[in-house]
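Standup notes
- HV: blocked on the assembly model, inputs below
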Amino acid sequence: MLKPLGDRVILQAQEEETTVGGIVLASNAQEKPQTAKVVAVGDGRVLDNGEKVAPSVKEGETVLLDKYSGTEVKYEGASYLVVHEKDLVAIVD
Amino acid sequence: MLKPLGDRVILQAQEEETTVGGIVLASNAQEKPQTAKVVAVGDGRVLDNGEKVAPSVKEGETVLLDKYSGTEVKYEGASYLVVHEKDLVAIVD
Amino acid sequence: MLKPLGDRVILQAQEEETTVGGIVLASNAQEKPQTAKVVAVGDGRVLDNGEKVAPSVKEGETVLLDKYSGTEVKYEGASYLVVHEKDLVAIVD
Amino acid sequence: MLKPLGDRVILQAQEEETTVGGIVLASNAQEKPQTAKVVAVGDGRVLDNGEKVAPSVKEGETVLLDKYSGTEVKYEGASYLVVHEKDLVAIVD
Amino acid sequence: MLKPLGDRVILQAQEEETTVGGIVLASNAQEKPQTAKVVAVGDGRVLDNGEKVAPSVKEGETVLLDKYSGTEVKYEGASYLVVHEKDLVAIVD
Amino acid sequence: MLKPLGDRVILQAQEEETTVGGIVLASNAQEKPQTAKVVAVGDGRVLDNGEKVAPSVKEGETVLLDKYSGTEVKYEGASYLVVHEKDLVAIVD
Amino acid sequence: MLKPLGDRVILQAQEEETTVGGIVLASNAQEKPQTAKVVAVGDGRVLDNGEKVAPSVKEGETVLLDKYSGTEVKYEGASYLVVHEKDLVAIVD
């Protein structure tokens, strides 16, 4: 298991399938999906007064992220995206 | 639904129509509209003392924004602009 | 109406006319006027301790500004200059 | 009158004349004078705790300034130099 | 012994062996392992209020790190990687 | 007299003479002396909490300074070096 | 004597000799030693709240330092390396 440090959030890209008339189409490469699922969340960043601020997202939530943020890491064959919480744009309900 | 994180604000470009003698003219491409409608507002940024500062704009308000700020995101077919609150210039009453 | 956000100030360029022997001369293009009239003032910036600091200029005042500061915005046909308060050099009494 | 904003100080270049055997010589262009007279002083900068720190120089004092600091502004025909207080090097007694 | 200073963490690269049908394969050079073992941990960084924040990792833990972070140091023939705590991505349980 | 502002220190280059067998040699131009004498000291910098921190050097002390720091100023024919206190490396006892 | 200012530490490069079969070999130029001996330590840096934080190293200790940090200074014929405490990587026990 990966336990992210600080204000980091570990994400897993979501397979985005589009169904047209029952035919499942893979997502268009040019229109890279911007959503991902939160797999693990760090304890948060430490403020200058020593307080820790817990991230605003929770495991299992789907988030929208900026196209160019994050670092890809590989762990046990799977590939994940690690981002700092501030690079998450929105929660998708 | 998109719930913006931190001090982010989600905007939707406003269709700007100009009517001249009853004829509706599309807005001039060279003079890109600088106003947009606030669609969703984050909880605000966290100060160094741990306090959260709510953004100064509200859902439904029309805002004036800097020409080059923000990131375009696509969600359910529609396209939105996500900006940090500090990149909003003014509220248009 | 435009309500500037944060520590922003909205300015309107002043027509600077020079009269020589009764003849009104337009201001010299090379010697661009550096003064403008304050049209609207934001609520001010938020300090790290959560306090809000109101800008030091008021609507109606004439200010001297740095030559290269500010962003031009268009609103209802008129053109304004939006600057952060820190880019205003002096109040002209 | 110009009332500088923030930690700004308005200076007026001093005519530096050198007398050699009774003949007044203009200051050498290559050895640009680095002193100026304080014409007006702002209220000072606001600290992160909300306190205002008054500048350490007063109207009428002569100051030594860094060769490349400041911005020239024109006001009522005269030309002034506006600098942030931190760019003043020393007071000349 | 090396006692890291500040928020530094000393790591030792882990030998990553892959066994395929009983044959031990060296890790692929192109897929550089991103995990390392924590060998020593500093006392942590000092906050602006004078408090010291102990790092979140402990000696003996395995951590995931960003591909390009850290500085290699040599000590008594062995080679170590020294990173600032903020460059550690996650703890691997 | 020059009264330095803020955390500035005014230095005067020291003539460094080397005596070899009674013969006084001028210091080697390639090995520029790195020591100077403190001529005047400012009141110090203002911390974010409003406190003023007096510089750690005193008039008359000899200091070691970084080769490339400081700005040369001319005053009454003499030439001085003005540095910020943080650019002084050590006091030479 | 040199008394370092602020959070500076003065180091002296250690002669690193390698003995192979009784023959003392000079250290390899390509593998520049990364350890040095602490010769003098400053009083430490001043925090934003006015507190002074004493450096974590003491005179006489051997430290490991980053390859490219520090500035060389010459004093009384000997050459020293002056580094800010934050550029020291570890204490070598």
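- HV (later): unblocked. The mean pLDDT of chain E is 83. Chains E and F do not touch (no CB pair under 8 Å).
- Next: hand off to the docking folks.
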